[in-house]
Amino acid sequence: MNRSDFQLRLRELSAGDKRLLLVCFAAALIALALGVLFGAATGLVRARLIDLPALEGYRLMTLHGVTVFFYWLYFAQAGLLLVFSVTRAEGGDGIAWRPAAWAGVALMIAGFVLSETGAARGLPLLYDASPELTAPGTPGTASVYLGYLLLAAGLFGVAAAAVATVLAPVFAGRSASLTTVGFASLSWAGLLAVSALAAVNAFLPAARWALGMGPTPQDYSTGWHILFHNMHYLPLMATVLTWYVIVQLLTGVESIFGARFSKIVFASYLVFVPPTSLYHMFLEPNLAGSVRVAGSLLSLFISVPTVLVFLIIVASLETHARARGALGLFGWMRQLPWRNPAMSAIGMAVLTLAAGGALSFVLIQEKLAPLLSDTFFVPGYFHFLTVGTVTLTFLGALCYVLPAITGRPLWRPGLLANLSYWAAAGVTLFGAAGVAAGYLGVPRRMLDVGYEGAAPGIWALLLSAVGIGGVVMALALLVYVFGLVRSALPRASTRAAAPLPEVDLGGVALDRSRAWTGPLSILVLIGVMAIFTMLAFETMKALPLAAIGGAAH
Amino acid sequence: MKQELWLLVIVSAVWAALALVYATVPALHMPGYATVWGGGAVVFLVLAVAIGAARRRGRKPD
User: Fold this and answer.
1) Looking at CA atoms only, how far is residue B11 from chain A in angstroms?
2) pLDDT digits (tens, 9 = 90+) for A504-522
3) CA-closest candidate to residue A435, choices A484, A411, A407, A469
4) ipTM of the complex
5) Disruptive mutation site among A155, A166, A171 for chain B (greatest number of B CBs within 10 Å)
6) Longest dimension (CA), chain A
7) pLDDT tens for residues A137-161?
8) B28 contacts in A (CB within 8 Å)?
9) What distances in angstroms separate CA A401 from CA A179, A208, A534, one per listed residue?
């Protein structure tokens, strides 16, 4: 499918389908804006620039986690899943089972309201809402769990509609096959449905207990870890699929490895989900030693599918660009349309994924997990992934999707393209300073780490850098959200906008071209992982402290 | 369509095997994991069956 087909299919959707997608994306952008504001406020409390009682500080932290991790990422995924399903189902005619999709989105919105109300008015339990921190009948507790359950039910409804949309043309005999993106969307919908089951497994006993209708939940932390593992994987799978779709639209380049191989790679995401999950249990004291070793070994496979999709995209782009005369190791990159906000967002997403991915391999090692899991290393590394990789990718995709749905031009595309660089710079400062702070023992989830003047002086310096990075990141994201909302709303000026910069590198690359950038990137990544790991061991060995972690992911 | 169907069958088999391991191996005895991976095996099997059904239905002349 070329870019005009993609835009045409979105433009020709029925008014009902468009309304559904716009409601979904509006909820996503509201959740993102709120989540960013809560996050920025949490940062200001940590920096002691806002003086709030501890409980209110934790409330902001709770609202930040709940809003961004559970609702922004999943409203955006719900909308993009429906978009990819409906545009990539050959012979399709709109969203199938639309009432199921509407019910799903409505349940997710109801869940959002309940979770936010619970977090705003009840005890701030942080986003994992451990029952150990509260008691049945405590205001807000049941509301948080019920909100998560409604979110799960909603995701199930949206996933069902996406599967029906992908398969409807085949059932009707209008298409004899599934496209790569159609199959990947179907797989993604399957994983969303399983994650909904995992959420029910984790939160239903807790909700019954909070309502006084059931016993204390047994093994809540295990249920949380299973859900959390799936919820790690889902946004990454969604991200690389979004790259796969958008890069093709931006450049016209299809995979040089063919559809068969791409489908195997997307299916491998599902194969690798269960066996790689054990590392979440490393902090559980009862876990057998043999299981820890097995978990450590299996966790090495966690990034295999993501790396494979990265290689497919980069090798395909490089080969086509070289066939059109690109020279030098990185010269092919100059042919990409960097002034297009979607391209700059994906470019920055790839770089921050490399940083966050390398650091995540430090954290999931059995020996380092107990030392680092309760430090600021964790928020330091995961913002590379949640903000730099996933959020920027979704925002970049919306730059393509929203104008196609509304028929209105994108607001200031040049500025939006620059915002990706600002957001990436902010997250790099936040992440680098946060990881360094974690290596030096700064605890996470602590609002005041001054220890009445006893804390090392460098902690304050690093946390100031974290604060500055956080402000830059937050401002960039808020302006981005404003730009997307402004693009979707009717405007007084009806002046025709210039089309977004795109290139046409497509066609068949007949020459024998070398594509070294992908494999070289992987080698560099492995080297960086080794350096971060050695740094972690050496720095933490030098600390005059001994620590035993508790389950905290 | 045959490839997609078999890929999902393989995914379902992996999830089912893991569910079995979590349910039966004492060192890994975590009923929650067994439930979710087992549920996932069912979901992916249902998707494979749906692909197979769509393929058969699509081939039938009206």
Assistant:
1) 5
2) 877 666 566 677 888 888 8
3) A469
4) 0.95
5) A171
6) 73
7) 888 899 999 999 999 999 999 999 9
8) 288, 291
9) 19, 40, 43
